[in-house]
Amino acid sequence: MTDLHDGTRAAGNLEDDAEKTAPIRIPAQFRQAPAIAPLRPQQARPMPPQGAMPPPPVAPTAARNGFGITALCLGIVSLVFMLIPLTGFIAVILGALALIFGISGWSRARRGQATNGKMAVTGSALGALGLIVGIIGVVIMFQATAQLNDALDQLGTPSSSSTPYVGGPAAPERPAATSYTYEVTGNYRATQLTYTASNGDSASFNDNGTTSSGSKLPWSETVTPEPNGNYQSLNASTLSSKGDSWITCTIKDNTGAVIATDTGRGAYAGCYASTPFN
Questions:
Q1: Domain count, the chain
Q2: End-of-domain residue from the set 105, 137, 152
Q3: For the segment 89-137, what is each residue's pLDDT rounded down to a tens digit?
């Protein structure tokens, strides 16, 4: 009995152990959802220090191209004025401004504040050209003005290297001639001698009386002029047909001064001299 009871108890214990070790089946309605993996904590952003505000967002700035555009415009205008020397000073002013604005615009382009660096360089080059040519035009203008002033001064005043003309000394008044002497000279005979007599009438002389033989030279005659006469004259010609012939008519006053003279040369050459009366 005891053994049977103990066997039954042992069998019962085995069943109880089997039930305890067997997996427990849970109805579907009582089953729990699968466990969700925990979220990773996000990395916390650094907070600004206490009392400091975050910097505001930087807005994009527009390109500052004003200096380059101004330099190009001024450089082009300076080229127009540099072609005329009279307006060269305007080209100098505009060229200098274009050079200044061009350099400033190029500096902005290097700093990234402008986008027209090439335009600024072009304006600077044109401004420099206008400045140089304008200076040359101004120099030419000043030189021309100085030369014009010198020319006007020379026209208005006598030259410093020359002695101003103040007039020569007045010639002393010659006393009125009391007589005139007519003279005819030559290398051959004269055909006929004609002169003005003292009373103003014409007179002729031929020592042979015929024109074929003529008068022997030299010949002279002295006359006394009358007041208020018109002129005195002497006329003669050579008788020779040879080419080496010559004849001279001369009028002298009573002091021996020659008043008038004339010489003719060649075949049948003639001479004529005249002088006013007193």
A1: 2
A2: 152
A3: 888 899 899 999 999 989 888 888 888 888 989 999 999 999 998 899 8
Mark whether 231 and 191 lie in a shared domain: yes
Confidence of residue 249 (pLDDT cuts 50, 70, 90): very high
Q: Are 268 and 240 in contact (CB under 8 A)?
A: yes
What does the DSSP assignment read for 118-161?
Answer: HHHHHHHHHHHHHHHHHHHHHHHHHHHHHHHHHHHHHHHS--TT
Side-chain half-sphere exposure of 15, counting CA atoms within 13 A: 6
The residue with tokens 């001698």 is: 193
β-strand partners of 234: 195, 273
Question: Is 223:193 a contact under the CB 8 Å cutoff?
Answer: no
CATH code at position 250? 2.60.40
- Please report how the helices 88-111 and 117-156 are oriented relative to each other, as an axis angle in degrees rounded to 10: 160
Torsion, CA 205, CA 207, CA 208, CA 213, rounded to 10: -80
Q: Which residue segment(s) compose the domain that 140 sits in?
A: 66-152
In a domain, 23, yes or no: no
